[in-house]
Amino acid sequence: MPLNIRHFMAPVAALALVLSLSIPASADHEFGAEVPFELAWHGYGEMHFAHLDYGPNQNRDGGSQDDDRFVFDQTRFVLELEGFMLQEQILFEAEIEFEHGGTGSAMELEYEEFGEYEQEVEKGGEVVLEELYVQKGFLDYFSIRAGRFYVAFGQLNDYHLPTHYLATRRAESESTITPATWDEMGFEIASKYLHWMHVRAQVVNGLDSTGFSSQRWIASGHQTRFEEIRATDLAYVGRVDFKPIQGVNFGGSVYHGETAKNRPKPDLINDCDDDNPDKVAACGYISAPLTMVDGHLMFDVFNVRGQGTVIWGRLHNADLISERNARLSNNLNVLRSPVAEEALAYWWELGVDVAPYIGLDERHELEPFFRYDYYDTMYKTRGSLFDNPRFERTVLTGGLSYTYRDALVTKLDYAHRTLGDSEFNEENTATLAVGFVY
Prior knowledge:
The chain is mainly beta. The protein has one domain: Porin (Beta Barrel), CATH 2.40.160. It is 6% helix and 46% strand. A 16-stranded antiparallel beta barrel has the order 1-2-3-6-7-8-9-10-11-12-13-14-15-16-17-18. A two-stranded antiparallel ribbon has the order 4-5. A hairpin with a 2-residue loop joins strand 12 (290-301) and strand 13 (304-315). The radius of gyration is 23 Å and the shape is globular.
């Protein structure tokens, strides 16, 4: 494989960001003016050590094979840099995530090579810029921001630190049918009313329907394969959260956006007799809107901690997307499997802090917990599409989480996964996780 300087750009950029964190806030930049921001940096990291009793191929007849294997993973390390102008209520934030200790590569659409997709490097991990935005506040209860930020949908985008959830991994149900964590580019308006109601409205780039599949529904439609983000189709997000008392938060959110125009090639289009070859999609695009709703709850009161989420979504004209995706190029690196019209997921977890009852002080939290996950990425299908039971899954997880000073966490759990038909093998995973927040 020929050497390409682009292969090293992501790690070099990440290193430059790390080195910049040591520059004092009062330092002068290259043009001689004093930097007006007060800088702060923080982040988190986690590692997993897992034993699995099933093989890696879950798509074979009868499900995965019996196996006995160990998997070690430096799951993620995140650096987050914030700059404040407190008096002006201006904030900027940049967050970079190292996933699985690796680097990444971008895909290109090479029209010079017969319109094929090209990816020069296979990636073992990723270096991802997850957030980069500027925010302006007004009177402590209203703000606007522009850039890349987390989509205000679901539970995990707000509670994704290793100290936020009890199990060793984020909820499998939510992170399977939606991107996790889900970041997009766009604009947001947010308001807090009397400190107990938080409302957010966002306009962001929509998803790319070439990534939709049986296995992950719309989750892989998150645009990560190409250098530029296509935003011909936009999405609209609304969210409201209520915090009636300290330690309790509940609410809901709605996501709605078209998905046909953000495909790499304009191939989900209407056919007509007056097609103009000199115009892209002369007869218009097929409408394929996506609508999702969620309800969520989090509480942490009297040594009891829990949270949960329900997500339902509907993709219109899923059959037409499935038909077109089946003819995509292998080089695009997508699953090309049919996508269902509707998907459903819900999960909850509950833990009790027993540290006070065994003589540990407030610096320690020791929480036995239980989690229930359910999701079906083919919850409702249309026409002749087979409702494959292998994509209906239930996961029961139990374990113990120990947290020290809300910063260091060690977790041990055991997860039992069953599929939607008894003919498929059951799958068990024991995991030790070590994480930190700084």
